[in-house]
Design a protein that fits this description.
The protein is α+β, with helices and mostly antiparallel strands and about 500 residues long. It has 3 domains: about 15-85 and about 235-360, Beta-lactamase (3-Layer(aba) Sandwich); about 100-195, no CATH class; about 385-495, Lipocalin. It contains 11 helices and 21 strands. A 10-stranded antiparallel beta sheet has the order 15-14-13-12-21-20-19-18-17-16, with no helix packed on it. A 6-stranded antiparallel beta sheet has the order 2-1-11-10-9-8, sandwiched between helices. It is globular. The chain starts with about 40 loop residues before the first helix and ends with a strand.
């Protein structure tokens, strides 16, 4: 069933009847005014403004969505256009928290125990002579990132990930050495599949996703057909919020215990030390695939700023998706700007502040490039490139009445990218050697330069391309907002094709 299209929304006066704690609904969390749930609209405005200002506008480093739940009701939500409520977003390592929840459910069903040896699930994949430390590794050690590894096991796509994990040296006694270890979460997924006979995604469907009303989740798979576990899950922002609200309610949802309360307590508690910096939210201890935070909170999070922050002391949940290079900065903003917004009792209605808050949310947007029109001298003219690593042969910018089209030939194929002018245009885009993916694109001229911005709207990634024209040459610079490697590509120089 398709998700209903929701506009950017902050509930105001019409929901005053929700002044007390509101029970969550599987289909959609209820909405309330902030003041009815003891939250200041003025303080929330400062929080949203701070989120909007963080990052680097030049490369679109920043937030993609935010949702705040207080006393079971959504009191604030917003999406930075072109991101929208119905779009699933890659969670990266926030997937880990869903994986550990599957382990907890499987343990409650008697399918496994967390003290089971890891090797007991994989007799066919075990090394011929496993080390004593490998033999001692338990499912609990996978959960708390204390497998005994000194470095992460490899995950070559051409080989079994299970075999690679079990073949990797285990120099430390399991349980004694914290190492953030994505392959360890993959092994939890493999354990669940071995123990239940179902892939992680399929196993969670009737037990977690359907009860929470999470529609159409997707999860990437390993070469041997296991859900990747440590990353690869994609869901919507409100799905993250519902997952967090379920955790806040100790595993209860609509009167039914879908995850054991004791498991939520264990998983969110400090199970292993992971640092000593009191100012870092990555040094407060680690649970079962959950990070402990300052201010009594805990969270699941993923690369480039995917957050599910649970604040038991405030009876609140904060869900955020983003593409940011500084994840600590986002949490610092929450502690500085959001915590002061909470009150222990409902507040009097503040229509002025609520209106300002609504206006701010209605205007949230990934920074658009300049919206000027093409100089006649460069419009539509192709520029050609010599041999290069990007396999880019030529580029041209064709002018149009409502926007320009970037036409480039790469790897022997022509690609056309229609750009919105002063707005976002939806299309599928192939870029950087990747296959075509859903995107929203805007572009425009400023003098003799053309800026193209591509938001890959189901991911954290935004690519900004600048074409700097000067007579017979064009200089092409491309930079991503975030990345696991270099985000800025080497400048390329093209020459204008001869005019016949």
């Amino acid at each position: 069933m398709a998700r209903p299209r929701r506009a950017l929304f902050f509930a105001i006066a019409g929901l005053a009847l929700l002044a007390t704690s509101v029970a969550a609904s599987a289909a959609e969390l209820p909405r309330s005014t902030p003041e009815a749930q003891g939250v200041s609209s003025a303080d929330l405005l400062a929080f949203i403004e701070a989120l909007d200002a963080c990052g680097d506008a030049a490369v679109a480093d920043g937030i993609h969505s935010v949702m705040l739940v207080r006393h079971g009701a959504v009191v604030a939500e917003g999406w930075w256009a072109p991101y929208t409520p119905q779009l699933r977003h890659q969670l990266y390592s926030l997937s880990k928290s869903f994986t550990s929840t599957a382990v907890g459910i499987a343990a409650a069903e008697g399918k496994l125990q967390i003290n089971d040896p890891v090797l007991s699930f994989f007799p066919a994949e075990a090394p011929a002579e496993p080390s004593a430390n490998l033999k001692a590794m338990r499912v609990a050690d996978l959960l708390r990132m204390a497998t005994g590894h000194q470095g992460e096991p490899p995950q070559a796509r051409s080989e079994s990930w299970v075999r690679q994990f079990l073949a990797h040296p285990v120099p430390f006694k399991p349980g004694t050495h914290f190492l953030y270890n994505t392959p360890a979460t993959f092994m939890q997924s493999a354990v669940v599949q071995k123990a239940t006979g179902e892939k992680l995604l399929d196993y969670l469907q009737p037990r977690l996703f359907e009860p929470l009303g999470i529609e159409g989740p997707t999860w990437e798979e390993s070469p041997e057909g296991f859900s990747t576990g440590g990353y690869g899950l994609s869901v919507c922002t409100d799905d993250i919020a519902k997952f967090g609200q379920m955790l806040l309610q100790k595993g209860e949802w609509e009167g039914k215990q879908i995850v054991p309360a004791a498991w939520v307590e264990e998983a969110s508690a400090r199970q292993v030390a992971n640092g000593s910096n009191p100012e870092s939210d990555w040094d407060q201890g680690y649970g079962y695939q959950f990070w402990r935070c300052r201010h009594g909170a805990f969270r699941g999070d993923g690369a480039f700023g995917q957050y599910c922050v649970v604040l038991p002391e405030e009876d609140a949940v904060l869900a955020i998706t983003s593409g940011t290079r500084d994840m600590q900065r986002v949490l610092d903003i929450a502690w500085k700007k959001l915590l002061p917004a909470f009150r222990s009792v409902p507040l009097a209605a503040d229509d002025v502040a609520a209106a300002k808050l609504a206006a701010q949310c209605a205007s949230l947007q990934v920074p658009l490039p300049p919206a000027g029109t093409a100089p006649q001298s460069f419009a539509g003219r192709p520029y050609q490139f010599g041999e290069n690593g990007a396999k880019l042969a030529s580029v041209a910018v064709e002018p149009g009445d409502d926007g320009d089209t970037v036409v480039f030939i790469a790897d022997g194929k022509e690609h056309r990218i229609p750009c919105g002018r002063g707005t976002w245009r939806r299309c599928d885009v192939a870029w950087g050697g990747m296959p075509a993916r859903p995107a929203a694109v805007a572009g425009g001229w400023e003098g003799d330069s053309f800026t193209l911005r591509i938001c890959f709207v189901e991911t954290p990634f935004v690519t900004t391309v600048r074409l700097l024209f000067a007579g017979e040459i064009v200089r092409v610079n491309s930079e991503a907002n975030v990345g696991f490697g270099p985000v800025k590509q080497p400048e390329m120089v093209g020459k204008a094709a001869a005019i016949n």
